[in-house]
Write a structure and sequence with these properties.
By secondary structure, this protein is α+β, with helices and mostly antiparallel strands. The chain is built from six helices and seven strands; from the N terminus they run αααβαβαβββαββ. The chain has a five-stranded mixed β-barrel.
């Protein structure tokens, strides 16, 4: 399953947002060693009981969390950039506090600004493709471009969602699936 990214006249100047699964799959194809090391670190921390049988939905949710963790909380650094795409993807995992997935183009902004929180929906407009939300945990009001969520909550003036948002090229956007 792959994410198709389309561009229309209205959003031609906006960055294409990759799903976190796409980021993980890119590294899996281009540098299996980095991907495998990240999975080893993640699953060691998750520490699933190998003797217990887990429902498929639980295992899928843990995998989704891995994709988010890999894309948002693990940094990679380019080694010996040459202009040759196959060589430029030689990377090393940088894991730890303050690490993130920069310096890969728009990922720098996403890396610097993304956060997850609980948001109160002040307004949702499917026509505009935007939600106006208030951060309940940290404070602040954000206008978030998210066509899917805006259509799902169209006309809402209340209700809570848990989501991760990021400010990329001047626009706040949802950057992961709604958590709640």
């Amino acid at each position: 399953m792959s994410t198709a990214i389309t561009t229309t006249a209205e959003n031609a100047g906006l960055p294409a947002m990759l799903d976190t699964k796409d980021v993980a799959e890119m590294f899996k194809r281009c540098n299996l060693a980095v991907y495998a090391e990240a999975r080893r670190i993640y699953y060691r921390e998750v520490n699933l009981n190998p003797c217990k049988k887990y429902p498929k939905q639980v295992l899928q949710r843990i995998e989704w969390w891995f994709w988010d963790w890999f894309a948002y909380d693990c940094a990679v650094s380019g080694i010996g950039l040459t202009g040759n795409e196959s060589e430029d993807l030689r990377i090393e995992l940088q894991y730890g506090p303050g690490a993130g997935i920069s310096p890969l183009r728009d990922f720098r902004e996403l890396d610097d600004t993304n956060f997850a929180s609980m948001f109160w929906i002040r307004d949702a407009s499917a026509v505009k493709g935007r939600l106006t939300v208030e951060d309940i945990i940290h404070g602040g009001v954000y206008e978030v471009a998210d066509v899917h969520a805006a259509s799902q909550y169209d006309g809402a003036h209340g209700g809570m969602i848990v989501n991760r948002i990021a400010h990329v090229r001047g626009v706040w956007r949802s950057c992961s699936c709604l958590l709640y």
